[in-house]
# Entry
Amino acid sequence: MMDKTHRVDEVTGHRRMRRLRKADWQRRMVQENYLTVDDLIWPIFVVPGTNILEPITAMPGVNRMSVDKAVEAAKRAADLGIPALATFPNVEMELRDQTGSEVLKSNNLLNQVTTAIKKAVPNIGVITDVALDPFTSHGHDGILRDGEIVNDETVDQLVRAAVAQADAGSDIIAPSDMMDGRIGAIRRGLDAAGHQSVGIMSYATKFASCHYGPYREAISTSGLLKGDKKTYYIDPANGTQAVRDAALDVEEGADMLMVKPGLPYLDICWRLKESFGLPVFAYQVSGEYSQIKAAAANGWIDGERAMLETLMCFKRAGCDGILTYFAVEVAQMLAKRN
# Structure
């Protein structure tokens, strides 16, 4: 028999990676990561009033919605199998002040939507953020005193807000403020109030990123923000510091860890998963979403493929789930495939 060995066989030691890529059935058989509806958390924006669906210019396809419409959205999400929603309020400007005191009220907009969703759709999870930025007149995540975001007073307020949100029915408290010590303080506050079953999804590594712009439009803080958030968010250059931040949150009792933004920080997702073994989530933030939508609208990329590829990247980087504005769109696609 004639020897058909090729020099490529000799170079590779007869190991050819393309053997496992030659057919669709084979590629599917060896696929390492999968995206399912169980990986999706849908962030929604809520406004006062009724029967309101208000498009957000910087986020094509995303709307601010009144509580009644948010309940309808929750039903839709549950029907698609999406496990949870993350809710963000756009409260009236006259209710915002230096300390974000509206966050403490049991009947504030955020707590209203939580109660309404849990009553109408009890089988879907509700994740709420205790950060003060939707409630402050200056757009910061904490209390502003003499030009400084004060840590400890802010933490005291976050604890009270977390208890109020849990009282309203929140399943998971997700503090995004990046104040020191807030995870442990919130855990103790929740337990003291009898909310031992309420989890904490820590925004463990939230970076001082340029990708939040459309979100700030969505909650009407972009025109309010005085200065920047670099004294409490993490410098994008600092990976080791981010892991240290997360380690402290783990020690303080976080049940889950989040990386925000998502795609520019896949290395951090991986490092947190490898370091701590806790469930890790990425927030595919508004700027990431809007970039894909804008490029697709101009015909520069295939928007559907870009959407799916980025979400799969999070899974490959070790994420157990993704907060994404694409959640409903992806869930519908996955349902058709099944």
In short: The first helix runs from residue 7 to 12. The chain has a mean pLDDT of 95. The chain is about 40% helix and 15% strand. Residues 98 and 136 are 5 Å apart (CA to CA).
